[in-house]
Design brief:
Radius of gyration: 18 Å
Order of helices and strands: EEHEHEEHEHHEEH
Number of strands: 8
Shape: globular
Helix content: 25-40%
Structural class: alpha+beta
Distance between the termini: 34 Å
Number of domains: 1
């Protein structure tokens, strides 16, 4: 079975129709896959998208050393019990695919007036890209980052939490997340596609200058 995929690129994600992107200098590379009929699983389509994304990741690796990072948080507990207060983010059943030797932050407990949550950050090997993509597709409170910064300490987890949920949202605030990468060197991946959707998309947001650098490097290799 052939899964149709396409790649879309734009120097300005905002101008390309991503309304939640506020900065003009945030670019987008999207890999979009379409299932031919409803019997084809979204996981199958996502596999095709991940394969199409691989050359982009290889290009990024040649420019600099960037690591694949997973940031994840739980929903709020209004009145956390003793078990919830001792909960470990990495004990979640839906993270069982995470390699045992994958570096990870400690579980960070976030306490606010409207409730408590736990969060963490893990470094993911590229061999687990499909697993992390499927996890993030199903979890609205998770983000995949590509970054040269390999710190996994509590300070960074808290900073990412405030960026992802600036107003205490239950889902990632993509306007805030994409605004943070404007002009920088990090790349953030958004994976979307719900059970009744026809398409799956992997959107790679990055600074416009970084996309231009990637395009220039690809042109040099082709020449």
């Amino acid at each position: 079975m052939t899964i149709k995929t396409r790649v879309e690129r734009a120097a300005s994600a905002k101008a390309h129709g991503f309304r939640y992107v506020k900065a003009d200098d945030v670019a987008i590379v999207s890999v979009v896959g379409e299932r031919p009929n409803p019997t084809v699983s979204l996981t199958t389509v996502l596999h095709a998208c991940v394969r199409r994304l691989t050359p982009l990741l290889a290009s990024i690796d040649r420019l600099d050393v960037r690591r694949l990072l997973l940031f994840v948080a739980t929903p709020f507990w209004d009145q956390p019990n003793a078990l919830a207060r001792r909960a470990e983010i990495w004990a979640r059943e839906d993270l069982h695919w995470l390699p045992a030797d994958a570096p990870r932050s400690p579980t960070v407990h976030i306490h606010r007036s409207d409730g408590s949550r736990i969060a963490g950050l893990a470094r993911i090997p590229e061999s687990a890209l499909m697993n992390v993509a499927e996890f993030v597709r199903k979890n609205r409170a998770a983000v995949v980052w590509l970054s040269a910064n390999t710190d996994l300490d509590e300070t960074r987890v808290r900073a990412l939490f405030e960026r992802a949920f600036p107003q205490g949202e239950s889902q990632v605030d993509w306007a805030s997340v994409t605004d943070a990468i404007a002009g920088g060197e990090d790349i953030v991946l958004r994976i979307s596609g719900g059970f009744d959707d026809r398409e799956v998309a992997i959107d790679a947001f990055m600074a416009t200058w970084l996309l231009q650098t990637l395009d220039a490097a690809s042109s040099d290799e082709a020449g």
